[in-house]
Amino acid sequence: MGIGGYRNHPSAENLLGQETTIRGGTSGDSEEPQAINAYIDANNLQAVDEAKRRIIRLYEEDFVKIDPTGRISRLFMSTPSVLARNISRYVPSSVIGELDKEIELLKSLEDSKTVILAHHADDPNVGLPSTADYDKFKMYVGDTGLFITLAFRDKAFTENIIYDKLMTDTLPANLGYVYENLVAQMLAASSNRLFYHTWPKDDKHYYEVDFLLSRGPKLCPVEVKSSGYKAHASLDAFCIKYSDWIMERYVITTKDLSRKGQTLYVPAYMTPLL
């Protein structure tokens, strides 16, 4: 049962969300009618994958026009692998080496609208930009359909297990970064500036809240869970630490809409409504 005793009907909505994630085109600024048309015409995910690979090749050609050295292209192509490592920040030098023009290259990539940046909020409050560390950020692909293809670009379509896993709601925890990218895309498409927050848990570990949303005088922390959604230690710790600032706390899941205690569990397809 959903909130207020109303039953959610996740099958149609979740299926739509899963198919949209795979083929691309979730964002209002998506540039991927080719992939969408391929799915409409053939109802075949392999045709969609082939269309997305063509789009990526076109992106590479455009990136080379901006930066003939290929560094911008490498930054873009590396996004899934960096996000998969679950590190607290994107370090461009780990991809392209130390460069004086690193910031300029990132700015060009961000201006292309092919990626989305989430900046670290050092001291979370309503004025998130005023405490943001613009040298510490996470980077997402602007279209999750392309993200999936990039993540398995070295493999043939038949080896891309993400498609089947997404369609059957069995994406393992180590592929949860796909949902994180999807949520980032939908939040950005809903005109949210993206911020996140980390702080030490002990000498070797840290807490991390995936996204922070500013809502009037309050904050809404967001944690993304593809599995094991009932455990959210970072979200709990954040809400204790910044209790005076919290309006609502969200966990984005693949499950039905529900509330347990102070936490609202929201199915991924409802992310634009936050």
Quick overview:
The chain contains 11 helices and 8 strands.
What string gives the helices and strands in order? HHHHHHHEEHHHEEEHEEE
- Rg over alpha carbons: 19 Å
The major β-sheet equals: 8 strands, mixed
Count the DSSP helices.
11
Structural class: alpha/beta
Could you explain how this protein is built, in words?
- With 274 residues, this protein is an alpha/beta fold.
- It has 11 helices and 8 strands.
- The protein has helices at residues 10-23, 33-42, 45-66, 71-77, 79-84, 93-96, 102-111, 144-151, 161-167, 177-189, 233-241; strands at 115-121, 132-141, 195-200, 206-215, 218-224, 249-253, 258-260, 263-267.
- An 8-stranded mixed sheet has the order 2-1-3-4-5-6-8-7.
- Strand 5 (218-224), helix 11 (233-241) and strand 6 (249-253) form a beta-alpha-beta unit.
- Helix 4 packs across helix 7 (102-111).
- The longest helix has 22 residues, at 45-66.
- The two termini are 20 Å apart.
- The model is unreliable at 1-17 (pLDDT under 50).
